Amino acid sequence: MIKAVIVDVDDTLCLTEATSFDLENEVLAEMGRPPMSRELHLANWGEPLLEAMPRRSPGLDLERFLPLFHSTMRRHIAEGRLDVIPPENLEALDRLVLSGRTVMLLTSRAEVELRHMLEPDHVLAGRISGAWHRDNTRHGKPDPRAFDELLAHTGLSPAQCVYVGDSPGDAVAAGGAGIAFIACLQSGVRRLDEFDSRYVTASVDKFPQVVEAVETLSRIPG
């Protein structure tokens, strides 16, 4: 029985790669640096920002980049350009909650990059019961130990959980932890054949299809 649905944020709950690409290049331009290519951005999409940016823009001064990034990010959020969760995805979360399941987030983002989504007036309030990120977990994806704090805090077993994500690293982390994994392919950033099939329990083309996928997994004896 699936009791908890753990959801990735970027390109799973909301589509963010393309908007993040524009945001990061806007900051690079403000710093007088050349833009990165889309191919370079996609090559390490899903990695923590501080690990990815030195390869996206070699020689980048991270101490100067970060405050500019965060201020630009806040402006993009205020303008409705970043972290927009489609109504149909919110409805899917509601259906999961109404079915008696707990919904939580697990992301590679830092807390400062996620904070606005955890505010009491955000659309996720009342829909998610917790969020795990780079600053409250000791290990990040694709390490299976990325789920350690979540499992310890909730008392759930891996068999009671399913993780929904968009990257092969998400699948490796979940599978290594003994957690069922649903690949969400809506963003088009990844293809199913890029995933290790040993770790993919199910796949969906659109996030709302997760509801039925979870129901199907719950009916499987085990």
Automatic annotation (TrEMBL):
Gene3D superfamilies attached to this UniProt entry: HAD superfamily/HAD-like, Putative phosphatase, domain 2
Entry GO CC: cytosol
Origin superkingdom: Bacteria
Name this protein carries in UniProt: Haloacid dehalogenase
GO MF, one annotated term: phosphoglycolate phosphatase activity
Any GO BP: DNA repair
One Pfam family linked to the record: HAD_2
SUPFAM superfamilies to which the protein is assigned, alphabetical: HAD-like (SSF56784)
